[in-house]
Amino acid sequence: MVRVFVAGGSNVEPHRNLAIAMREMARSWPDVQFSRAYHNTAVGFEGPDFINWVAEFRTDWPIDQVLARLHAIEALCGRARHAPKWAPRSMDLDVLLFDDVVATTREYQLPRPDLVKRAYMLGPMAEIAPEVTHPTLGLTMGELWQRFDRDAHPLQQIDLGLTTSG
């Protein structure tokens, strides 16, 4: 079984779309666990603030099958597959780590480079898996989060009032 971490975020009807994503992820991976949710500003464009979390689950699915399911969940939330990169999102599900796999393809890069650059990815990741070691940096998520400039990238915890049962 592979341990997978996925960042989820939305700034278009975020409560509704995050609830859909959580429910659908729980259907595919019953052991999925979610970090707390965090409210933060849009990065790279002007737009509504995002709500983000990180999910963890174990699977025997190959990465391509995991990505296909995550893309299907994004579509259920109204995301067009080829929408502009720096624009509002109904749902964005990004694989951060797929066990300790290090790989670059046209479809993905593992570990996800943004993981150590974005508070909304690293903070929730460190919350649910502080002991996990970054496959290329050799530091744990907890250590990386301690070194992160949190004052420059503030996160605000938010209670979504959601469960995986939706």
Topology:
Layout: E1 2-10, H1 14-28, E2 33-34, E3 37-40, E4 50-59, H2 63-76, E5 92-98, E6 103-104, E7 109-110, H3 119-128, H4 141-147, E8 156-158
Antiparallel strand pairs: 1-4, 1-5, 2-4, 3-4, 3-8, 6-7
Helix pairs in contact: 1-2, 3-4
Can you walk me through this structure?
The protein has 166 residues and is of the alpha+beta class. It has one domain (2-158): 7,8-Dihydro-6-hydroxymethylpterin-pyrophosphokinase HPPK (Alpha-Beta Plaits, 2-Layer Sandwich), CATH 3.30.70.560. It has helices at 14-28, 63-76, 119-128, 141-147; strands at residues 2-10, 33-34, 37-40, 50-59, 92-98, 103-104, 109-110, 156-158. The strands form two sheets. Strands 1, 2, 3, 4, 5 and 8 form a six-stranded antiparallel β-sheet that branches. A two-stranded antiparallel ribbon has the order 6-7. Helix 1 (14-28) runs antiparallel to helix 2 and helix 3 (119-128) packs across helix 4. The two termini are 26 Å apart.
CATH architecture: 2-Layer Sandwich
Quaternary: single chain
Whole-number radius of gyration?
15 Å
Poorly predicted spans: none
Strand content: 15-25%
The N- and C-terminal alpha carbons lie at a distance of 26 Å
Give the CATH H-level superfamily: 7,8-Dihydro-6-hydroxymethylpterin-pyrophosphokinase HPPK
Total number of helical segments? 4
Helix content: 25-40%
SSE order: EHEEEHEEEHHE
Q: Globular, elongated, flat, extended or rod-shaped: what is the shape?
A: globular
CATH class division: Alpha Beta
Structural class, by secondary structure, is: alpha+beta
The profile of the biggest β sheet is: 6 strands, antiparallel
